[in-house]
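Appendix B. Chain record.
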Amino acid sequence: PQQLIYPVMPNDGYRTSCECERCAAFVQAQEERSGSRPQAISNYVWNFVNQIALEVYKTHPDRLIGCCAYSQYINPPDNLEKLSPNVAVMVCKTRRNYWDQEYQAKINQFLDGWRTKARQLYIWEYYLWVGYEPILKGLPVFFPYILAEDIRSLKGSSRGEFIESGTWRPRSDDPRLLNLPG
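Structure tokens predicted for this chain:
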């Protein structure tokens, strides 16, 4: 009961909607309107999150309904002007990729869009290597100057950060690990 944020989020790899007539029709209408399948999925996910948040807000306005802006639903919804005041949007991004100015500009564009939609904006950051090289998996990746600059740029709009501090490890019988050095 003391928890502040309650997550309502699709699993990793989520790329489509429920296949019932109602949901399929919603996504199809959103795709036709926006011209983009990812935008349609984003509208679908954030519409769902917002509906839950609106109901929770009636009785528990001090509790947040959280969802990451991630993968197919990283785009701010273009079918909702504003999200319920108790929606916590956690924008997933990776500062270690800020060496790539195109990536950084894209993330900043997402952040600008979310700032107009949500009062509760958070950052979901990855400080551990999560790439596909098994020997590197879980190693910290940290760039203090990039981190400091980015945190300064978020002042006044981000309410905090979630730092992913774990990563999955392959099974010990994973063939990719059999040829690792001593």
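Further analysis of this model is presented in Appendix C.
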